[in-house]
# Entry
Amino acid sequence: MKHKIILGTLVCNLSCFAALLSPAYAENASQFGLKTSAAESTGEFTVTLQGTNLQDLYAYEAKISFDASKLEVINANTKIEGFSISPIVKNNEVTFAHTKVGSVSGEKGNLDMGTITFKAKKAGTSQLTWTSVKIVDHNLQNQSLALDKSFDFTKIFSDLVDHWAKTDVMSMVDKNIVEGMDDDHFAPDATVTRAQFATLIARALDLKSNSVQPPFTDVAVGSWYEDTVKKGYAAGLINGISDREFAPEKNISREEMAAMLMRAKSHVTGMRVEDMTSSSSLPFNDEDLISDWAKKVVQLAVDAGLMNGRTAEGFAPQGQATRAEAVVVLKRLLAGLK
# Structure
């Protein structure tokens, strides 16, 4: 029954005392740390609780804090012989406890005390922190230690694993500016509509709602993009493809994206696009494919480092912008506005 008494002491958080450490003992005090299976993955990962210079570890109780809205505890286990309780999750904290059984000595030296497996619920970065540990020696003497061992884990979308835009997309996900198509897919190479890109810009710049009524007859009342178009139009970020048409469902071209980007920069900096100047000419062999109205904004966007060519030789101005391209250029815009 000794192990049950120990677990009861750990789980119920009964009062315990810790002997004052002498300087000589402090130099050899046990240390605790975290080791993870990966800093990023598409789903599950493990956290290993490590003990260094353990003197007599008969039982322990570890507490890990995390965001339960983002992460889920799958299981916990240890290779130390004895008896473990199932991990207890409450108020964004998981508690895991283990004890040896019988009249045996505690563990000594360096070892992995236990492993907890988590599953990320949605894409983005989450932090885990080992906040405390209670240790018990074979004489049932207890000691409680406050810890602050943290690490960040990022769940990435499965279709971004080897994608060129992975880092930038995940950065914008963490800023709550962009979302995936679902919890596991971002669809980076899918096209973007004019309404979708206008929405991304409005969200990135935190544009506020207003009462301005755009002149576009194809922006239906109650449509998901109605408020976005109002915000973007009032801020001077968007124009229509004609006086009365915005073409919200039309896939946005790369030159149209350049235009919205430069108007967004103008909105934040207060400098009119007409007054902006570039210091170099376009290095692309398809420059003649850029519409006359877009030549300046494309040159400004390239010169400012907001956009690159699809290849070293071609800008592809009439090419349809992808979700990855849209997110990357917005990240560059925000970085340049700091």
About this structure: Residues 1-27 have pLDDT under 50 and may be disordered. The first strand starts at residue 31 and ends at 36.
